[in-house]
Amino acid sequence: MTVPRDQSHEKQHKHLVSKVTHLYKEYYKVKWAGARQDVLGFYSPTWMTPLERALLWFTDWKPSMLYRVLHSLKSTAGTDGDDDGKKLKEMRWRTGVEEGRVEREMERQQVAMADRRMVELARGGPGGGGCVEGALDQVLVGLERVMKSADCVRLKALKGVLEVLSPLQCVDFMAALLMVQLRVRCWGKMDSVRSSSGCDGEGVGVARVDVI
Description:
It comes from Stephania yunnanensis. The chain has 9 helices and 2 strands, in the order E-H-H-H-H-H-H-H-H-H-E. The model is unreliable at 201-212 (pLDDT under 50). The protein is elongated. The protein is mainly alpha-helical. It has a two-stranded parallel ribbon. Helix content is 72%, strand content 2%. The termini are close together.
């Protein structure tokens, strides 16, 4: 897809950004539906390379990464003034606070694994298989809740950044975000095969956006 950089094509810029954000929302709908069947699969996705899995933050990208990407684009996709800069700074702080809440919730889930009842079950205490299954179900429900909370922080941060940027800046930003994710996958594939010939892109779905 080719998108002109001229400001007169603002309608096209808005349409493209709207289309991409819609795909993000649809992805999370499908993800949440799948998590009800197998939430652990999203914490250790087999379709990702080891490098990609190592960089996951509760099943996906870390929200504060958005501000790093935006900072790297400040020469072409920076803010229009001090007010926008203040908004982004405030959003970054708020995103950090919300990330902390998700991390503390995961800590509670991890600590719950060591409570008295779980330890007794692990040692083969009374209760039998039914109690073990019940305890495991509670753990999985907790992990699903953490994943959804993290996804909400991701979507909220993305929405906030896009509301501050102009339509053309949004196109630049979304293209850069996509390229970061694709590049990490490329590096992960290269590392997996220990090849110096580069990444051939096999198995990578590439959505190309040319801004001219």
